[in-house]
Specification:
- By secondary structure, the protein is of the alpha/beta class.
- It is built from ten helices and eleven strands.
- It has two domains: about 120 residues, NIF3 (NGG1p interacting factor 3)-like (Udp-n-acetylmuramoylalanyl-d-glutamate--2,6- Diaminopimelate Ligase, Chain: A, domain 1); about 120 residues, NIF3 (NGG1p interacting factor 3)-like (Udp-n-acetylmuramoylalanyl-d-glutamate--2,6- Diaminopimelate Ligase, Chain: A, domain 1, 3-Layer(aba) Sandwich).
- It is globular, with a radius of gyration of 19 Å.
Length: about 280
Amino acid sequence: MKDTTTVGDVIQWLDAGAPFRYAASWDSCGLQVGDPRSAVSRVLVALDPDSTTLEEAARRDCQCLVTHHPLIFQPLKALRLDEHPAALVAFALRRNIHVVAAHTNLDAAREGTNDQLARLLGLTDCRPLESDQAWRGEDRYAGMGKTGLLERPATIEELVGKLRGALGAIAVRGVGDPGRTVRRVGLCTGSGGGFMEKVVEAGCEAYVTGDVKYHEAQRAREAGLAVVDVGHFASERIVVSPLAAYLQSQARRKGSDVEVLTAREETDPFWTDAP
C-alpha cells in the first residue's frame, strides 16, 4: 500500500475522471480550503459544502470533503467569522478539513451528473445539449445536458413516476399536459432553465431539470415543450454515490488505503407539503 495519500492525490483522481479543464470559465472548482500536501486517510463525498456536511466530516474523522457545489464561489473581500461562507471556511480550517469542489467539470464529464440522470431514465441515442469544441473527442468529455430517447413512449405522468423511482420521494412541478405521450427527452441536472431554447431546438418533447423560473416555464408552454422540474438537490444528489465509488476505485488502483465515504445527513433545503 502507498504510505501516504495526500489531498493532492485526491485532486489528481478527480481530474482523471472529470478533468478540471472542462469547468465553465465562470466556475470555481478544485481545492477551495486546505493544503494539497496534507495527508488524508478518509474522504467524505457530498453534494453541498455546508455546516451539515462539514460537521459530518468532522464526526466521521474525514480530513477531506469532496463536493459538487463550491464553497467559495465569488472572491472573498474579508474573512469575517460572522458571515457566510467565511464561517464555514474557518470551521474547515479549525477541524483540518480540506474542501475540494468538482462542479461544472463533473457536469460535463462522462459518468457525471447528466450521464447519471440519463442512465437512470434509460435514455438511448444520447447527445449533449451543449458541447465545447475544445474538448470534443476527448474520452472523458460528454458535454453539458443531454437529449435522448426513452426506451418506449411514456406519458408525462409515467415519466414523473419513473423519476420518483430513481430520485426518491421528490416533489415536482410541471408544465404541460400530464397525460401527453413523449419519447424524446432533454435533461440538465441542477439549474437548467438557461438551456430551454436549446431543448426546443433539439426537438425534445419533454425536459427534466431543476430551478425553472416562471418566464422559462411560459416559454416552454408556448413552444409546446413539457417540463418536469424535479428540484436542484434531487437532480444532482444522484452523483454522490457514483463519485465516491469512483474515488474508492482510484485509491485501490493507486495502492492507497484511503477510505471514501458518502454523506448521510445532507437534505434538500426546500420543504414541501405535497403528499
